[in-house]
From TrEMBL:
Name of the protein in question: DNA-binding CsgD family transcriptional regulator
UniProt-recorded Gene Ontology molecular function terms: DNA binding
Keyword DNA-binding: yes
UniProt KW keywords: DNA-binding
Positions of transmembrane segments: none
Lineage: Bacteria, Pseudomonadati, Pseudomonadota, Alphaproteobacteria, Hyphomicrobiales
Species this chain originates from: Rhizobium rosettiformans
Domain HTH luxR-type per the UniProt entry, residue ranges: 11-76
Record GO biological process: regulation of DNA-templated transcription
Pfam families for this protein: GerE
InterPro entries: Sig_transdc_resp-reg_C-effctor, Tscrpt_reg_LuxR_C, WH-like_DNA-bd_sf
Amino acid sequence: MKTDTMRAIGQEPSFSALTDREIRCLQLVAEGKRSEEAANVLVLSREEVNQALVSAQEKLEASNLMHAVSLAMLIGVIDHTDPHQPK
């Protein structure tokens, strides 16, 4: 039986490819932005951001938004480095 993690790290992925908008929205959520803040950054409506996040969650077969962000990090479509951590 395949687990979410196994799919996330590239073993028999069963999800559809994420769009650029979905990836950008997930990245901003990963950085701690709320839908309204992401909408301002991306010059979209809050509804468009929420639609992209729901679509990404469905495509990744995630149980919630944070699960979707985690899976996106695991498969490498969003950056998971901490911009506040010294280099």
